[in-house]
């Protein structure tokens, strides 16, 4: 996908090297944990290695019935973070979930909103999703602001243990009917990939 400022693509090995560097440099302040699984609570080298292993694991376990698709986000020629979209029995449920992170030194530039919008455009316009879900801890104000800016609605709460303490997570849901297609967003070379998402190309239509 391309947007006015970004490119989102499946990572090459060189891209993963850069993404691992972003993880090692830092993703958030040490006294705050935005993730349900605290993968950043390790030393920089282990964060870098775990980032690469995470992508390899996704590739090896991919099936049309259960896929996790993680893109690297390119801004001004650099890998700055990753945007993930997951689908479980997507051909039936028509629902995806999303998650993401950006290297700390690239935050505050609107990249998070733009890359989430890109993957939502892929989900709704490209894959025909009916719903997209997300979640964030109630004190993760940046993530919640991105979701609400893009039109998500609250979809209940869940309680979690975070660093040994209880924490509330806000679930969010965006319906296709509430999605406004952004200007300048494009999807490239999708049609040959549709079977990997559990879908079949429409012989009478070109990819968006």
From TrEMBL:
SUPFAM superfamilies: Acyl-CoA N-acyltransferases (Nat) (SSF55729). It holds the Pfam family Acetyltransf_3. It comes from the Bacteria. Residues 6-173 form the N-acetyltransferase domain. PROSITE patterns: GNAT. InterPro entries: Acyl_CoA_acyltransferase, GNAT_dom, Ribosomal_N-acetyltransferase. This is RimJ/RimL family protein N-acetyltransferase.
